[in-house]
Specification:
The protein has 86 residues and is mostly beta strands. It is globular. Helices cover 0% and strands 47% of the residues. It has a three-stranded antiparallel beta sheet with strand order 1-2-3, with no helix packed on it. The chain has a three-stranded antiparallel beta sheet with strand order 4-5-6, with no helix packed on it. The termini are close together.
Length: 86
């Protein structure tokens, strides 16, 4: 299984209400030929799309991402657990 994470497009940093603006994790079961399993972690909140992933146990990922905007009060890093079943 391969993992991929990225923001969904350019120009969304100032538009948190845009439907595809958020943090996503996508999984490929065919070595990157397709990304058929997409998990939406956040949507509709301001983010600069920085993310990190690490497997902490067999089938469990720790996902770290940010909420907020550059040079604005309240920007923070968040972490959540993501269980993966194939």
């Amino acid at each position: 299984m391969r993992l991929w994470s990225a923001h969904p497009g350019e120009g969304l940093l100032g538009r948190p209400s845009y439907p595809l603006n958020g943090n996503f994790v996508a999984f490929s079961l065919d070595h990157g030929e397709s990304w058929s399993h997409v998990v939406e972690l956040t949507s509709g909140v301001m983010t600069t799309h920085y993310m990190g992933l690490r497997e902490v146990r067999d089938g469990e990922l720790a996902v770290v991402y940010d909420a907020g905007a550059w040079n604005r009060p309240g920007r923070m890093a968040l972490c959540r657990s993501l269980l993966v079943e194939v």
